Each structure stands twice: as C-alpha cells, then as structure tokens.
C-alpha cells in the first residue's frame, strides 16, 4: 500500500458515530478512533490507540480475516468496506509499537501455561492490572499457532517484536521447553493459573492409509525441509490455504486442494481465492479422499464425490469413486482440537481449548477475558 493508497483508504472512513467496527472486534479495538488519528497524520497516536487493547496489533492487522470489523463497515452500503485490517497493519508499521506501560505492582503472581496468542492475551491483561506473571511454554519460543503462519503473511520479526514488548520487563519470567503436567503444584505456588494449551490433536479424515500423510503442523513448522512436485492438500480453511500457497512458493508444480464441501463454503477470504488462482492451485470441491495407497515412491488416491443434502451437510454420493495417481505427498490440513474429556474442571482455560477460537484475535480476546474474570473474582472476594 503506497502512501497515496493509504491516505485514500483512510479518507473513505465515514467516521460513523455508532462505531459498528469497534463492536465487531473481539478485542474492542476502535477503527473509528485510530483512523481518525491517522487521517490527521498522527500515526503514533493511532498505533498507541490500537495497542492499548491489542497486545499483538500488527500481527492481527496482517492476518485478521474480513469477517469482524471489515464485515461490519457501513461503507460497504455505498461501494465496498474499508480494508481495516490492512490499515491497522500499515498504521502499526508507521506509528511503531508504544512502550508497554506498567501500573504499580499489586504483589500478585499468575502462572500461564502456554505461550500462544491466548496465553499472551492473558499475560497482557494481568500486566495491565499490576500482576507479575510466569509463563511456561513447551516449545523453544513463544507464539504458538501464530508461528505456523507463513512469513509471506506474517514476518516473524513482527511477531517477535510484539512478544518482546510484552515479556521484556521485570514482572515477566518466561520458561521455554517446559511441559507442565502437575497443575495442582502450580495452583499452590501462584495466586492464579491459566491454561492455554492450544489444540494438540489433529483432526483426521478417516481414510484408509491416512497414517502415511503429513499433518499441516509438521509441514508449516519447517516447509523448507520438504520438497515435492505434486501434492494433495486436504482441507478448505486458512491452514489448508497456507499449506497450498507455501508449497507453490517452495517449487511444487501441482498442488490440489481436496475440499469436502462447495468452494463457496471454504473458510477463506475472497482475496485468498485470487491468490490460489494466481498460484494455479487446483480446488477439487465436493471431493473426499477415502484411501491413500503407496505406489513406489508416490501415492495413489481413491476419491469420492459429495453433495450437499437438504440439511446443508456434505454427504458422499454412492458409486461415485474414482482414482488419481502420482502424488508425492498428502498433507492433512483439517485443523485441530482439544479433547473435551481432558478439559480441566477447576482451572481456568482460554483460547483454542475452548473450541470457540478460530483466529488469532479471538484467541487473544479469550485469554484477556479469562484473566479479567480471575482478576474480577479475586477483587470481589476481597471486597
């Protein structure tokens, strides 16, 4: 976005008093307000206005979907909605991250288990209320699922800077490569514990030979480690999109996405379809793989066609199977989940564990809300 394009997009904002964009943001960020600052050239104040509610402000601007603030924009009744996430990312780039202001300590200590977006959201809320925080992460860096987003969408230096802003102070201690299993011990040591463990279990297709596939987490964690010419990607969401485009950028000649439902049902944005077309990714809609068979160093697939029934669900069409050959790999990108039977009954949890967070911004909001509830409950018990 050039300076001229930026100013043009800023000027499209109607400054409507009802602020539907703010109401639609899971974090309550007000595009109305930060756009008003930016229109006048005060990008520093605009960035500060965003960052006071969003601990990962540029990250969210870069990766947020169009179904929150942008979908609520009244401007779309005239021509098209303002590209609010894009504006937010550009404003943060120009205005810079403000210094994290810490209130006086209240001498309370919280433990956060999991350093992904939800854990970072909880961390932000605790810090804003004077708590000290120890955060435990099983991997060798903080960021969680945000680390799987390809660099062409989210440069790692952006995420690193925003995490460092939250953790580089005397009230935060980060313990990496620490997998916590004794939750009761943590409860005895801290005034509060929040679990933000993400979604460790990958969703499966139920196809014969599925164990020979590669799951999206392993692929997106180190895509340069894999070199394929022809790949099948199973899934129709943003994770599948990231796998497909990354494969193309890594030199794959043929990438086909197998989508159980219709193309219009895919959980991606309109601009993402344009990107898939530009990279010549084939979308096989209403198609499900039922078997993966090794054939030398490659794999053959059995596929069945689907239809949408009267209840709006995808169902297989009998006697519609066919075979496809010559795939170097099948990548499963159906998403993940946290098993309900393992959810803690007496420890607050947030983020993807809840089953209600499909985006980074929703996970952050969940983390903030969980920490805020703990703070409110403890304050009420003192009163």
Number of helices: 14
Multimeric state: single chain
Strand content: 15-25%
- Cα gyration radius (Å): 22 Å
Helix content: 25-40%
What strand order characterises the main sheet?
6-14-7-8-9
> SSE string, helix = H, strand = E?
HHHHHHHEHEHEHEEEHEHEHEEEEEEEH
What does this structure look like?
By secondary structure, the chain is of the alpha/beta class. The chain has three domains: 3-95, Alpha-helical ferredoxin (Fumarate Reductase Iron-sulfur Protein, Chain B, domain 2, Orthogonal Bundle); 109-200 and 338-382, FAD/NAD(P)-binding domain; 202-336, 3-Layer(bba) Sandwich (FAD/NAD(P)-binding domain), CATH 3.50.50. The chain has 14 helices and 15 strands. The strands form four sheets. A five-stranded parallel β-sheet has the order 6-14-7-8-9. It starts with a helix and ends with a helix. The model has no long low-confidence stretch (mean pLDDT 96).
Task: Map the helices and strands.
Layout: H1 3-11, H2 20-24, H3 31-39, H4 43-51, H5 57-63, H6 69-72, H7 84-95, E1 109-113, H8 117-128, E2 132-136, H9 156-167, E3 172-175, H10 183-189, E4 192-195, E5 201-202, E6 214-215, H11 216-221, E7 230-234, H12 238-249, E8 254-259, H13 270-278, E9 282-285, E10 287-295, E11 298-308, E12 314-316, E13 322-327, E14 329-332, E15 336-337, H14 360-382
Parallel strand pairs: 1-2, 1-4, 2-3, 6-14, 7-8, 7-14, 8-9
Antiparallel strand pairs: 5-15, 10-11, 11-12, 11-13
Helix pairs in contact: 3-4, 3-7, 4-7, 5-7, 8-14
